[in-house]
Structure formats: structure tokens, C-alpha cells
Amino acid sequence: MTEEEAKITFWQTLLLIIIAYVSCVVVHLVKLILFRDRRDESLWPANRRKPVKTLIVMGSGGHTGEMVRLLSALDFRHFAPRLYLVARTDDMSAKRVQQLESSHVSTADSFQTVAISRSREVHQSWISTVLSFLISILDSLRILFSYQPDLILCNGPGTCVPPCVIALLLRALFIKRSTIVFVESICRVTTLSLTGKLMLFILADRSIVQWPELHAKYPQTVFLGRLV
């Protein structure tokens, strides 16, 4: 075999490997979006013993309050380490995280807070939202590729979409499987929020609602009663 033929064979082989990998990723992504069982699929191995590496996306305002109340009921020893994502313009949520963690003295060294760009500000135009969403996606890519959580816990609003998009992408690329659990706001009684619909039909492994009327309308959700 000549040197030229060897080069051609190498590039042909590399191209076939790339095509095979991309094909697997596309098939895996389609399966994750369209054919994932969002109610009966096991989220964790039955014999898991070690704590769950957790990423928590803090929304803002009332969403932050609901998340804090939800987290207050958890045993932090089973969810460690914890990484909180807050929007750069949301000082209140960062303070609430500090207050929450200070009440768990035994695990206070198992968390950190990271600020990311907000995907959309209140009253922001949809045109400029595209740019801010892309910036938030890049922030999320950097953080999730480095942290690689086992669990992503979120409750909206749109701040949680970019991290969950990146988590789904990393899972499709066979890099890291992060389980996404979305808890819809207690304010949503009969209809899901826009973020809730994106989570239910595309991004989340579990979408939890807090009203039986909402569960009846969207049977793919999980109803656990009032959580916050």
C-alpha cells in the first residue's frame, strides 16, 4: 500500500467513525425526546449508596421561595455536593441560598453558588432574548461540562431551560447522564407554564405537579400532593 493510499484509508476510516458517532447521537437524542418513559423509568440504580451530586437551579421571586421550602424538607446528606445556579441579576436568590445552607451546619461545606446569565429578563424583547439565551447556553455548557451533576432540580422560570438543554445534549453525546426533575409552581392549578411544557415534553425525566386537576390534564406528570 502506497503512502497516498494509506492516507486515503485513514481519512475514510475517520469519516466512518464520525458518521457512526453522529448517527448514534441523533438516534439517542430522538429516543430521549420522543420515547422516554417519564413516569415508570427508574431514575437511580436500586443499589445506589453514595450521595447524589446535585445541581439546583434557583428561579427568582416566588420560584426561589418555593424551591427553598422544597429543599428545606430534604436531607442534605443524601444530596451532596450541591451547586446552586442563580442569575447574575438575582441577588435575592443568592442570599436565600446562603440562609438555607447556614441552617444545615453539618453540610455547609458541601455547596457552592455560581451565577449565570439570565436567559430572559422581565419585559425583555423576544429579539434580544435570543442573544441572552445563547449567552446563558454558553454559561451552562461551561458549568455542566465541568460539574457533571447526577441530578438537576429546578422549578422554573426560564432560567432553568439553558442548563437542562445542555444536560440533555451531554446525555445524547454519551458524556454524562444527568437526571432532570422539574417541579411546577404551586400557582399552576389547571395549565402548565411554558417552561413546564418544555420540561414535560422535551427536557425533564420527571415533571411533578402539585394539583390533581393539572395531573388529570397532563397524565405524563407525577402528582405528589402539595410540596411547598
Explained architecture:
With 228 residues, the chain is an alpha/beta fold. The protein has 7 helices and 7 strands. It has a 7-stranded parallel sheet, sandwiched between helices. Strand 5, helix 6 and strand 6 form a beta-alpha-beta unit. It starts with a helix and ends in a 5-residue tail after the last strand. The mean pLDDT is 87.
Summarize this structure as a short list of keywords or feature phrases.
globular, 7-stranded parallel sheet, 228 residues, 7 helices
User: Assembly type of the shown chains?
Assistant: single chain
Number of helix segments? 7
Distance between the amino and carboxyl termini: 70 Å
Calculate the mean pLDDT score and round it. Answer: 87
The structure class reads alpha/beta
From the alpha-carbon coordinates, what is the Rg to the nearest angstrom?
Answer: 20 Å
Which segments are poorly predicted (pLDDT under 50) over 5 or more consecutive residues?
none
> What composes the largest sheet?
7 strands, parallel
Residue share in β-strands: 5-15%
Q: State the share of residues found in helices, binned by percent.
A: 40-55%
Strand tally is: 7
Return the string of H and E elements: HEHEHEHEHEHEHE
Q: What is the topology, as strand order, of the major beta sheet?
A: 3-2-1-4-5-6-7
| Overall geometry | globular
